[in-house]
Amino acid sequence: MTHAAPLSDTGSRSPAETDRITAITALFEATRARSRALVAPLSPEDMMLQPMQDASPAKWHLAHTTWFFEEFILKPRDPDYRSPDDRFAFLFNSYYVQAGPRHARDKRGLISRPDVADVMAYRAHVEQALAAVLRAGRDDAAEIADLVELGCHHEMQHQELLVTDLLNGLSYNPLLPVYQAPDGTPAKGENHPVTYTAHAGGLVEMGFDGTAAQAGFAYDCEMPRHKTYLAPYQLADRPVSNGDWIAFMEAGGYADQTLWLMDGWACAQREGWDAPLYWWQQDGEWWSYTLRGPMPVDPAAPVVHVSYYEADAFARWSGARLPTEAEWESAAGDTPIRGNFLDAGEDDGAETLGALIPRAGGGMYGDVWEWTQSPFTPYPGFRPPEGAIGEYNGKFMVNQFVLRGGSCATPRAQMRPSYRTFFYPHQRWQMLGLRLARDAG
Amino acid sequence: MTHAAPLSDTGSRSPAETDRITAITALFEATRARSRALVAPLSPEDMMLQPMQDASPAKWHLAHTTWFFEEFILKPRDPDYRSPDDRFAFLFNSYYVQAGPRHARDKRGLISRPDVADVMAYRAHVEQALAAVLRAGRDDAAEIADLVELGCHHEMQHQELLVTDLLNGLSYNPLLPVYQAPDGTPAKGENHPVTYTAHAGGLVEMGFDGTAAQAGFAYDCEMPRHKTYLAPYQLADRPVSNGDWIAFMEAGGYADQTLWLMDGWACAQREGWDAPLYWWQQDGEWWSYTLRGPMPVDPAAPVVHVSYYEADAFARWSGARLPTEAEWESAAGDTPIRGNFLDAGEDDGAETLGALIPRAGGGMYGDVWEWTQSPFTPYPGFRPPEGAIGEYNGKFMVNQFVLRGGSCATPRAQMRPSYRTFFYPHQRWQMLGLRLARDAG
Amino acid sequence: MTHAAPLSDTGSRSPAETDRITAITALFEATRARSRALVAPLSPEDMMLQPMQDASPAKWHLAHTTWFFEEFILKPRDPDYRSPDDRFAFLFNSYYVQAGPRHARDKRGLISRPDVADVMAYRAHVEQALAAVLRAGRDDAAEIADLVELGCHHEMQHQELLVTDLLNGLSYNPLLPVYQAPDGTPAKGENHPVTYTAHAGGLVEMGFDGTAAQAGFAYDCEMPRHKTYLAPYQLADRPVSNGDWIAFMEAGGYADQTLWLMDGWACAQREGWDAPLYWWQQDGEWWSYTLRGPMPVDPAAPVVHVSYYEADAFARWSGARLPTEAEWESAAGDTPIRGNFLDAGEDDGAETLGALIPRAGGGMYGDVWEWTQSPFTPYPGFRPPEGAIGEYNGKFMVNQFVLRGGSCATPRAQMRPSYRTFFYPHQRWQMLGLRLARDAG
Amino acid sequence: MTHAAPLSDTGSRSPAETDRITAITALFEATRARSRALVAPLSPEDMMLQPMQDASPAKWHLAHTTWFFEEFILKPRDPDYRSPDDRFAFLFNSYYVQAGPRHARDKRGLISRPDVADVMAYRAHVEQALAAVLRAGRDDAAEIADLVELGCHHEMQHQELLVTDLLNGLSYNPLLPVYQAPDGTPAKGENHPVTYTAHAGGLVEMGFDGTAAQAGFAYDCEMPRHKTYLAPYQLADRPVSNGDWIAFMEAGGYADQTLWLMDGWACAQREGWDAPLYWWQQDGEWWSYTLRGPMPVDPAAPVVHVSYYEADAFARWSGARLPTEAEWESAAGDTPIRGNFLDAGEDDGAETLGALIPRAGGGMYGDVWEWTQSPFTPYPGFRPPEGAIGEYNGKFMVNQFVLRGGSCATPRAQMRPSYRTFFYPHQRWQMLGLRLARDAG
């Protein structure tokens, strides 16, 4: 396009700067390619689905993550940049507060135009422009790299939402559509008893520390790193499994009010919950609807699609409790970040998709997000960044709970020990599970 | 396909029977072709839009009208018929009462699969099978012809819904998409005063009489023809115009509670009504969103997209009232059925689309449906037909009001003097207008 | 009491005028006394109950009916009149539209002050002032008499609401309070089959005619008297009984969607209806909560507390239909107005209370209001009266159905053949029943 | 009554035991007397008010606090005890979960019977029986004393609710009733700037320690005492005042979305908040409705009736934040518990009522509850007590925020440094205010 600046312009960069630009460019390309791969199996009709206000159509995710790069990098920093349609800034912003109820968040599924082809063209247009900016050896290259990195992590968050929103949208179709064909025979493992590992607690540090081993990207809400005091505790060596959950159901867990928080009981009654979301019983066996179509429930795999209310009731029934996020983070320590993530690895240079459903045998990371008992609150000394990006996380710090560890819908590159995701206690459509904790002896 | 019966099998038919089959076959072909023409300008994304429970996606209309022929003719009468997918019967039935809230009427917009291509193939499959049945010279040809005729009128009703549901769905898009390009310069006529024609009333007959000049198709609710007594009355010679409506608005009609029915006032306050649906003001001029995109409001054209509540308040403000449906039907008499309908006529053998918006200068038919003050109730002696088709209209006979005359979204072939359509008094998304009446002297 | 004004003040009146004033004064005194008698068994706490927006506290009814005389007679016509508290005009008007949601109709139960004693003092104050006006031999005595008559009929309507609102309010108390002790052993009659009487129909007249035998009071909506044409029909000789209704229930009437109007089915499912309001089953027998406390259901007595939706479904199940209001009024003809009303008669000069529950053996009047299939619409030529009183009935003419005949909660003096009451099709808390009709042969 | 055991039976008690019984008896008598004093100005009608589900009628508070002593002491421990009506156990329990929606929590205002007189008799009956049990020198006297103490603290919580629920109920009355006449001229103080006190933080202890200086009563949720780590911080020396709040309002605080949590903004828009609850503007001056009737807003007095959402937005606007509950408790330290509480002191042996509205000049306790940024969560090692009383606080530990310090509606005897009350972030009808905090330097 319009960015003809040759690579030789970067001659004045330090090797570290060059490495940084190279790494960010690779991250950008991989992230954008993953979004394209995620929608490759989808029809234009599939990409329109918005089953509820909490979810967005795939097409919107594709456009909104593109708008982010345009709005925060290209428009303010590239005077030659031209948007394919200035009205996209309005359509694909997250919050059209000023636009009134006819264009509210729950109406994203009514935006049939621009169509998918136009959105893919918009993506390509922005990618080309941004690649040129990254190549151009500009004075503000370091700042731009930081913003691109933020944009990539933002897009990875939306990749996770894209697949879980899609699962929710497709779940209303009586035909039970298959997003990805099953990869082999469905697993049916044995449900082994859980064991607990003791942790001494004491005065520990938590949160992201940019200057230490955790160097890299983190969100504002993971900082500052700070001290917190933990009593001795024990943490289960695996998430709660489907087999455990079926035992809870068979013991009448969904019908015993004494196990439930008062708000949780009211919610469960109002919604008619008697099993995790997407489960049904057929010929005496439990099935669930997944991104790989209908699947028999594997007793050994982590339970998924349970709300905080259900997780809390389960823990009480078990004579245990949910961990705090400090306990979880302290226990995770420097465990390597391996697990069942959205991307399974590389195959001939291109990323391959992961299992897309939780599987038995994982560790602290992947498979399911794990509810903690910690409300999503600011860390001591928290300060939101300046400017529009400052709205990133702070305004959500009420009524939500922190989950840790990532899931089978989380891109691997998004994960780190300090990562905090958060959802409302009634929500179930994400890959939400739990791991039990106990006070020490 | 499977229907090999040669045309010579029809040798035993009477000429009248043969004419009837020929006419019905032509009606079937024209009706099915019109549905295809209506969606020709649409993308798969456009055909997914379901903006509210009252509306359905275009794709659903296409499939549901096809299911009707399959369910009521092919399956019970053609033992060789095979559906492309037996699950379509579930997906495209009107009322999935047994299927629970996850598959309720307001979730039709979440059925991304089958996609548009599959639905078009389903249509072709059923059309081919039905054409063969019509050709086959069967003993039950007369019954089948009646059912095909019913199916065509059913499809025409859905054609009207298809375009008005589409208008509603597209209206949420801030880009204000254009379904059909404007046909020439937008009209801006002068708003002439209304005049009234006197009618003597007395004991009159109304309703459909199959044996008389009205011979042809009619719905159950138009029968039996019966006597009713009318006091002398006067009826306006044209519908209320946009210019009239602007005068009402400027006189504070939307703010004067004494003009409104109590339920109407509550509805108008709750919904924030201060103009017809799709209207907005820009630089001192009124605009409206139409199937031909944003258009300046033509003072001379009939007002459209007003609810019964608004129509009733307008009539009260005017010192007039809405007519009863008996008054309307008696006044219409045997006026020829001409007007601004969904189809404009024929051009080189193929139907052409009409104006798609109301225009000045029309008569009793076309442009806008006209609210009457008559609730939709059974005529004396009404009996619903036997069987599943018996549910056709009777179960709607509460809380709705009758409108007469057809609109610019109504296929011409659907109209007749006795035709009763009906909507709830709060609804506005159809092509709904009004014509005033007065008591005599 | 305080009525010392000598009759000689009225010396210039004609005997007819004097008779009219005497009659109206008696009506006023009897009406006001009945209101006092109705609340005599109630505590101040009982008089605060407002169980839903459709209902009002007894205290409010007492005050509002008093405000009517103050607002429309005393304030405009008696310059010496002083209200005990000018703010009552605001508190006890029907519609505080201008006052915003904090003082809306559904908040009447939150007006603890003025207390019952203050309201009773307000009543006495207005009664005294009005009696003086009636005695005074004024030039506008005829107009005042008309307004007092209207006020008395208005108060009688509120007497009916007072007892049915009270029944609804008390029904939420698990102690099942008794308003009036049962008058003898509860009836348990045999349920005899219904028989139908044939009516010829034809061109008939209906509505109130002030100049004929019906001379007396009527509401605007009962006029003008007008012609209407009826096909021959048959009308049942008694209302549908509890025994009939139990048969409907046992036949699965509440579970068979094909019997119901679509809106009715949705309402019944949403509300969980499976029997008339206030019914429950105990040891295999049906009981209902009544103004005389819990009572076993009498199979021979008319069913009560059923909605239009239920009445319509019952009629369809019976192979019959509801009558139109014209059919009902024509059949009633000049039947004497006798029956089970709110007041049973006179005992030592003072009125006595009636049964307060429907009983077997009645005629066209009393026991239960009878749903007709006629929506509440204006009669041909209807014109609301001028002024504030003009709002009386016209603004309710949408979405409601007419009932005829009065009930065991209706004051006898309120009834006449042309009387139209009206309720929404989902409402059940009034004394609502039904009588079947059929098309002739 | 039935408890004839002579005082000499207590001969075997230790002096400490005797002192304990004497103290508890005095607490019981004072608590019960305070409830009677609180309702002395109320009519039976006033005691029926239930303006919303969160609030209960005064009559219900009187009965429910009595039921507590009956249910947990008299019935299980006094075989001779007879309830005046066994059905009261059902009517006056907190949660009629099994009773279905017709008797749900929001229907307490529909229980007109038993009336106030019956409820007062119920109170006297239980008081007499309990006094006899306390006098009787029983073996389980210590356990009973603990339960009576719990019952008194329970009743004190309900006293606070009684007056704030009453204020809310009366606020719907356009007459703006006065619960207690103003005590002197309304204050109009000057609003002095706030100053901050520095606190070093570090590893501190918080929560109730029964064995230490805090010996006495505490709820389960205040335990166990535990360590927590605090960064250095600063705490304002006074609550936010009305003057401060008016500055926030005048600066457009209610209209600036960037100041608000996302859920808070949505709530404020939905509810139309633009000032604290009960405020209105009149002739350019702010007024508020209080338990002493309409009062001009005192700029120097603490602001009250603001939600967490408003408090959080105000703090952000101020460049400060809300304190955590650990910061608050640590700062309070062993400050004497003095302040503007529900009871002002003793006058001739009987308690007198306090100001009933917040006043300028107070310290950490009294006037207004102070929102903290701490969600209401279990302390590390929290275990709910066994049995029905175990439901006391644990089931509320979600979606609520902790407030500290007590208010002008809190009985003085209820307060201690570890006391945690909690409300939902949208609630405003309690005496809710705030005090600012800041991170140190």
Explain what this protein looks like in three dimensions.
The structure is a homotetramer of 441-residue chains. With 441 residues, chain A is α+β, with helices and mostly antiparallel strands. The first copy, chain A, has two domains: 165 residues; 244 residues, paralog of FGE (formylglycine-generating enzyme). Chain A has nine helices and 14 strands. Chain A is globular and about 65 Å long. Chains in contact: A-B, A-D, B-C, C-D.
Per-chain topology:
The structure is a homotetramer.
Chain A: H1 15-39, H2 58-77, H3 88-91, H4 116-135, H5 141-171, E1 196-199, E2 202-206, E3 226-230, E4 233-236, H6 242-250, H7 262-271, E5 279-282, E6 285-290, E7 293-296, H8 308-317, H9 325-332, E8 343-347, E9 350-353, E10 369-375, E11 401-404, E12 421-423, E13 432-434, E14 437-439
Parallel strand pairs in A: 10-13
Antiparallel strand pairs in A: 1-4, 2-3, 4-14, 5-6, 6-7, 8-9, 10-11, 11-12
Helix pairs in contact in A: 1-4, 1-5, 2-4, 2-5, 7-8
